[in-house]
Amino acid sequence: GMGADEKLSLMIRQTLTATRAERTDFNDANKEQPSRYVHWEACNYIVDLALPSQAEHRYDQIVGYDVVHREPFLDLGGSRFPLKTFYVPVLSDYLNSFHTYMLIRNTRSVEPVTSRRRGSRGQPSSS
Fold first, then answer.
1. What torsion, rounded to 10 degrees, do the Cα atoms 25, 26, 31, 35 define?
2. Predicted TM-score (pTM) of this structure
């Protein structure tokens, strides 16, 4: 049989050649890969950027989907230099334009996360 050194050597050679292998399921042109998608109804969570001109589904408006978290996303086209490049307290939030990234939960496949009160030692309280 093979010793540990031989097995390791074989494993390393296979790994090194794997990075050189030509793959048909990747591209070097930053093109969309529809074969990588799954249907949105099969997803437990969806991350969506809400845009005013959006033609696609607004997942936050579909029955059975709840927004779990929202985060602002800077609209570069609607914001001015230097405030879109450098954060200036109060001014940046007031003068920049933002859209919203949302984490959306499929209520049919994921139970809601409930926060539990913690006692003084980090253990759930008995109340």
1. 30
2. 0.58
Q: Which helix (H) or strand (E) holds 93?
A: helix 91-95
Asked if 98 contacts 73 with a C-beta cutoff of 8 angstroms, the reply is: yes
In sequence order, what are the beta bridge partners of 106? 65
Which two three-digit tokens encode residue 121?
């030692």
Q: Is the pLDDT assigned to residue 118 strictly greater than 60?
A: no
Q: How does pLDDT run across 62-73, given as a tens digit for each residue? A: 888 899 999 998
CA distances from 25 to 16, 33, 34 (A): 19, 8, 10
Q: Which residue has the higher pLDDT, 30 or 102?
A: 102
Q: pLDDT: is 65 or 123 the higher one?
A: 65
Q: Cα(56)–Cα(60) distance, rounded to whole angstroms? A: 12
* Phi and psi based region of residue 34 (left: phi greater than 0; alpha: psi -120 to 50; beta: remaining): alpha
What is the DSSP annotation of 34-56? GGG---GGG-SEEEEEE-TT--S
